[in-house]
Amino acid sequence: MKKITCLGMSIVMAAMLIAGCGDKKNTQEESGSKQPDTQIGAENTEESTQQAENKEGEEISITLLNTKSELVDQFEKMAQTYKEITGVNIEVVFTSDVVGTHLAERYASGSPYTIMMVDRPDVYDFQEYLLDLSGEDWIKDGGSAYGVTIDGKVYSFPMLIESVGLLYNAQAIEDITGKEFVWSEYNTPEKFQALLDELAAGGMEKPVAVNKEDWSLANHFFGQLYNQQGNSAEGSQAFVDSLKNGETKLVDNDRFNSLMDSFDLLAKYNINGADPLAADYDMNNTYFAEGDVAFWYNGSWVTEVYDKTEKIGMMPLPQKDDSDGANDYLISGASKTLVIDQKYSTPEQQQAAKDFLNWLVYDEAGQSFMVDDCSIIPAFANIDKKVSAPISVAAQTFIRNNATQFWYQTIPGDHGTQVGAAMQKYLSGNIDRTGLAGEVEKYWQGLE
Fold first, then answer.
1. Residues in CB range of 193: below 8 A, 6 or more apart
2. Residues in Cβ contact with 283 at an 8 Å cutoff, skipping those fewer than 6 apart
């Protein structure tokens, strides 16, 4: 992992960092989430009042960077009610910028945020500026398993568990087939293609939406190649290392060819097939919500569809190579994570930030904010609340049934742009599979 060694070069280096899942929209106004209002209890204790004041009795103010576009409204409402309860002022700022680039600019100007929602690779890149959270209570309830640990120290609070896979609109499917949709009946490429043919014959000419965004193509779809390597961090890292040293040739790799065969199938039925690189994410969302397409490769963070239908869910991508149970297990992991600045924030602000993280895990109101208001699948074992948003329900079912595969998220920051560009060329027909394999191998070998 590349390390930021000086602020003078940080902006240039961070320009190569990954755009996270929350960077799907370009403006705050595009979030469009339909979530219940934040419901926070009124346990305004003497302790919480003390937390709101520093040694001089002045009000504590902290800043929080939100990088999840679908949670803009929820975080702003939470900040209002949190201040009413504790007296702590949380100024929430949203950005759709590449997270690493944004943070590098803020650190270069000496004005980072107290709490920052980042992608996991960012924790490694900015570790020298972050507060060690190893002594926090939530570590024992899931924080050590899902947080980012560097040299034996935990530097991040796992905000949520997300899953990636094939979203399906069961209502749209059933309207054509006339029978209940059960995803497990279509978990092979042959059965899945038969269903796509049936949908096309029934009037849904192109039943699939394929995103053009580099983060979607490279980190989520192509990322399955790294994820599905023995369902372990060790297996994924060993495979990545074999790409770096040139040992693995992708054109001869069964998993690579299996994955790309499935991608070709999605592309064949892509509603954006006439001009795939002109595909608009919001339009794909509309196609899926309104039943113009039945399938969309995406993640459990999709929420802007429930005003149209709630008979939707997610399933693993059907592949020819099912040697490790790929067709029955959903890729899941802690994606977005919260970190606390230790370089520019005061001790009082750091304590207030830690108090906020504990509130999320141990206060019923904090749990309700995550699960009920944000439809977040929490990473902590002590939280037994169940999500209600249908796609999140589907993902949580896989997670609670231990039907998940490891999500390798320590890829370099520029993987999305570099491998994403190669995937875009493949999607548009400008390179073939051999050309794609060569570009991916060149990328990894260039990191050595």
1. 265
2. none
Q: Which amino acid is at 146?
A: Y
Interatomic CA distance for residues 260 and 319, integer angstroms: 9
Q: What pLDDT sits at residue 307?
A: 67
Which residue, among 358, 351, 353, 356, has the nearest Cα to 54 in the 3D structure? 351
Would you state the pLDDT for residue 137? 93
277: number of Cβ within 10 Å: 11
Q: Which residues of the chain have pLDDT under 50?
A: 1-56
**Contacts of residue 135, Cβ cutoff 8 Å, sequence gap at least 6:** none
Alpha helices in 94-231 (DSSP H): 99-108, 120-125, 143-146, 170-177, 189-201, 214, 224-227
- The helices-and-strands tally (H runs, E runs) of the chain is 18, 13
Residue 60 in tokens: 């504590």
- DSSP letter for 270, please: B
Q: Is 240:253 a contact under the CB 8 Å cutoff?
A: no
DSSP symbol at 316: P
